[in-house]
Amino acid sequence: MYIAYDENIDERFKRYFPIMKAVTGLLGNQCETVIHDFSNHNESIVAMMGNVTERQLYAPLTSFVLEILKKEGDEAEDRIGYITYYKGKPYRCSTIFIRDGKELIGCLCINYCVQDFFALKRITEQLTTSRSVLELEKEAKDEYFAQSVEDFVDNTVQKIIARNGKDLTKLTKAERLDLIRQLDQTGVFLVKGTVEMLAERMNMSKYTIYNDIDEVRK
């Protein structure tokens, strides 16, 4: 079993190690369990057991978790058993938020690749009346397992660009503000360095981006 963790990990997270080992050991090499430390969104992974998303220690938070934090803050609720896709493969995932009292300090994520089960289900659903794979796919959550901050920002920005079909360097102010608003709703600006990377891609000053963020939040 692949096991990696930060030698200086917060002691409050170590209590979850036996659970991580039990879950990953039970479900096998198609499963991983991950702890994210919210004290640093840019390098949040501080422990991993199993590895199916090919990330390493200190990879950033996923877009899905960031969006939850953006919308729900300290009141964030656990997400259990949702479906997401990564590199074309389906994953059944759970995200359990970790608190110290009322303080939200991190989360434990369980990611289980169910590609083989989906293939089997497609065959067997012809003989059953259970919910189809297509129904499950329609409910899939949008979650990207970034390898680095740059990878995370690129993926988030590219999804918005694809949706709008615009050249980043040729946006009108109204279009730029709409782009910033959409990005802000994803929680991407919670990741340190996002503004600088976006400014470089838009060929403008980071201070312009900061001003735009302030404007769309009014």
Automatic annotation (TrEMBL):
Boundaries of every YheO-like domain copy: 14-121
Pfam families, alphabetized: HTH_22 (PF13309), PAS_6 (PF08348)
Signal peptide start-end: none
Domain Transcriptional regulator DauR-like HTH: 153-213
Coiled-coil parts of chain: none
Protein name per Swiss-Prot or TrEMBL: Transcriptional regulator YheO
